[in-house]
Q: What sequence folds into this?
């Protein structure tokens, strides 16, 4: 029998089902492509001079297969297309929602919120910039690509529905982060109407995307940041009133479109919401930031490890960018010892910041690959 007796797909699905695979599955989630390091520097470090792949500021799909192989990766991402943004004279871009994004030092950020001054529900229907869920840009070539990945590789495939990947992230982009939180309390009828409209638009995009690739993917992604470093953005009571109903509807509807496992991404200190995330149907929770308040892997494994799969759990704020190679190796072994027993763990550095040198990335993946074989030491 070979040292690895599971395919990558089998390995990932076994872990998600809270059983022990042959080794800890490994994911290369995304990497910034900005100085001083980034995707191209990683390719160079790995000895791949003619590295293919996207050159955008946020690389999370179409990664060179040689990179994936050298890093022992078990998962790939296929991402829906997006209607071409409008390039403005000052170099900023306007997306399909009418949000204007400007490039910062590392990433683009929403700079102009088109619905910020809208005051009535009627004005929402008159919005000039609203994406057409049936725009062929969302699905062009997607089915063929997904089928090829399914037929010709054994990777677990993650489906990303493009603009359909979030609800309240879009709300904050359209209104501003502050208005999102204020609207809940000061203008609940408006809030409900806008949240409904975004949810239905996101779900219509998902229907278009998953009608093309739903049979080929193993995991579907939903992103909704709900926490800062020390606390959730709102009380648990407000989350359950102003966010959870829409998230629950989204999860329920997406699960009708595909049998893929559901990954919910939520940065920061989200411990108070973990039970709610599991209750609405999250089967994988990402990224488990251990430096955030109450997000220690020990706590989460003990309280939730028999109900949900954890993704990442690695300190990418201090350890991977600035730690020594020895410190990184020892800390990752500790994380694996905590989260991997019994299954329910997928290793990932999550989003690799541009400050993270490529030798740290390589070491982390080598450590997960060599140390993550079951039974865990």
A:
């Amino acid at each position: 029998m070979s040292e690895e007796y599971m395919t990558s797909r089998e390995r990932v699905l076994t872990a998600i089902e809270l059983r022990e695979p042959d080794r800890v599955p490994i994911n290369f989630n995304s990497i910034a492509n900005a100085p001083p390091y980034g995707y191209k520097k990683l390719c160079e470090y790995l000895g791949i001079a003619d590295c293919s792949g996207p050159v955008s500021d946020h690389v999370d799909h179409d990664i060179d297969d040689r990179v994936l192989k050298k890093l022992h990766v078990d998962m790939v991402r296929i991402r829906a297309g997006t209607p071409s943004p409008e390039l403005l004279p000052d170099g900023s871009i306007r997306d399909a929602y009418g949000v204007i994004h400007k490039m910062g030092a590392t990433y683009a950020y929403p700079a102009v919120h088109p619905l910020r001054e809208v005051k009535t529900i009627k004005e929402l229907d008159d919005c000039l910039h609203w994406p057409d869920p049936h725009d062929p840009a969302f699905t062009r070539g997607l089915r063929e690509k997904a089928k090829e990945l399914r037929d010709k590789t054994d990777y677990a495939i993650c489906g990303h529905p493009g603009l359909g990947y979030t609800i309240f992230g879009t709300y904050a982009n359209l209104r501003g982060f502050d208005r999102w939180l204020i609207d809940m309390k000061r203008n609940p009828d408006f809030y409900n109407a806008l949240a409904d409209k975004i949810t239905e638009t996101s779900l219509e995009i998902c229907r278009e995307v998953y009608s093309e690739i739903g049979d080929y993917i193993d995991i579907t992604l939903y992103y909704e940041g709900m926490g800062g470093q020390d606390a959730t953005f709102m009380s648990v009571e407000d989350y359950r009133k102003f966010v959870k109903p829409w998230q629950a509807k989204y999860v329920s509807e997406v699960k009708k479109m595909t049998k893929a496992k559901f990954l919910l991404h939520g940065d920061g200190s989200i411990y108070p919401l973990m039970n709610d995330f599991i209750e609405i149907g999250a089967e994988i929770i990402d990224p488990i930031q251990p430096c955030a308040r109450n997000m220690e892997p020990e706590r989460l494994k003990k309280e939730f490890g028999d109900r949900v799969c954890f993704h990442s759990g690695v300190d990418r704020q201090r350890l991977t960018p600035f730690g020594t190679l020895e410190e990184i190796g020892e800390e990752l072994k500790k994380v694996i010892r905590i989260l991997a027993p019994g299954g329910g763990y997928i290793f990932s550095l999550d989003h690799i910041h541009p400050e993270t040198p490529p030798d740290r990335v390589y070491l982390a993946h080598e450590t997960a690959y060599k140390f993550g074989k079951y039974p865990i030491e």
Remarks:
- The longest helix spans residues 188-213.
- Residues 45 and 358 are 6 Å apart (CA to CA).
- The chain has two domains: 1-73+310-377, 81-265.
